[in-house]
Write a structure and sequence with these properties.
By secondary structure, the chain is an alpha/beta fold. Helices cover 49% and strands 17% of the residues. α1 crosses α6.
Length: 238
C-alpha cells in the first residue's frame, strides 16, 4: 500500500486520479481550496483519505504539506496537479500573475520540498500535470504556456539531479491535451478526453515510472507538430 499526496484534488483530473489510487487500495492525501469537496471524497473513503485545505498561492504551503505527510504516516508518491489558466483577448495582468503564482511558485515550493523529502528517504515518485501547451508559446494564454514549459523543464531537471545524486526517485512529466474539466476554456477544442480517462492514463504512467506521457496518447503527435512547426506557420495557431 502506497501513501500518495495529490496537490489539487477537489475536482477534475486530480479527483479522478485520487479515486484511481483509492480503488487500487492505497492511502491518499488530498488538498485543495474547497473543504466541502475534499470532505466528500473523505466520506467516500473514510479509512484511506487524509486532507489539508489550502491555496497553493498562500504563504503556509509547507506547513500544510508537512501536516498531511504526518497524517498519512509518510509519503511514497507526490503529484502536483494544481493549475489555472484564463483565456483573454487582451493581456490581463492580474490573471497572468495569478497563473504564475499557481503554476510556477506553488509548484516549485511544494515539488522541491517533495524531492528533498524523497532524497532523504532514499526513494519516491514525483509527477506533475503540465500540458501539451508546454511545447510552444500561446498568444491567448501567455503565462499558462510559459508556466507549463517551466514545469516540464523543472521536472526533467529533477530527474537528472536524482540520477546524479544516485537517488531512486522517478519523475513523470504529464502533458495533457484538452480534458473535459472546468479549466478547459475557449473555442476550438478537439480530442477532448474525460477526466476519468485522463486520470487512468496518468495513473498507469506514474505506476510505470515513465519520464513523460501525453494524455491522451494521440497528443504526442500534436506535441511533435507544435515543436517542429516553423514559426511563420505556428504563429497562426498559437
Amino acid at each position: 500500500m502506497k501513501k500518495v499526496i495529490i496537490i489539487g484534488a477537489t475536482s477534475g483530473i486530480g479527483k479522478a486520479l485520487a479515486i484511481c489510487y483509492l480503488q487500487a487500495g492505497h492511502k491518499v492525501g488530498i488538498t485543495g481550496r474547497r473543504m466541502n469537496l475534499l470532505q466528500e471524497l473523505k466520506q467516500q473513503f473514510p479509512n484511506q483519505v487524509e486532507l489539508e485545505c489550502f491555496d497553493v498561492t498562500g504563504t503556509n504551503n509547507i506547513e500544510h504539506f508537512t501536516a498531511l505527510i504526518q497524517k498519512l504516516g509518510g509519503m511514497d508518491v507526490f503529484v502536483y496537479n494544481s493549475g489555472t489558466a484564463d483565456v483573454h483577448k487582451e493581456l490581463n495582468e492580474a490573471n497572468e500573475l495569478n497563473t504564475t503564482k499557481t503554476n510556477v511558485l506553488g509548484f516549485v515550493e511544494l515539488t522541491a520540498h517533495a524531492f528533498n523529502y524523497f532524497a532523504k528517504q532514499g526513494h519516491g515518485q514525483i509527477a506533475a500535470t503540465s500540458s501539451v501547451a508546454a511545447n510552444r508559446g500561446n498568444g491567448w494564454v501567455p503565462a499558462y504556456s510559459a508556466s507549463k514549459a517551466y514545469m516540464s523543464n523543472y521536472m526533467e531537471s529533477l530527474l537528472i539531479k536524482a540520477q546524479r545524486l544516485k537517488k531512486k526517485i522517478s519523475v513523470t512529466d504529464i502533458q495533457p491535451g484538452f480534458v473535459d474539466t472546468a479549466m478547459a476554456k475557449g473555442d476550438g477544442q478537439f480530442w477532448v478526453a474525460t477526466a476519468e480517462k485522463a486520470a487512468k492514463q496518468m495513473f498507469a504512467a506514474i505506476e510505470k515510472g515513465k519520464r513523460r506521457v501525453y494524455v491522451t496518447k494521440r497528443w504526442a503527435l500534436f506535441g511533435w507538430l507544435m515543436r517542429n512547426a516553423p514559426f511563420f506557420i505556428y504563429k497562426k495557431m498559437g
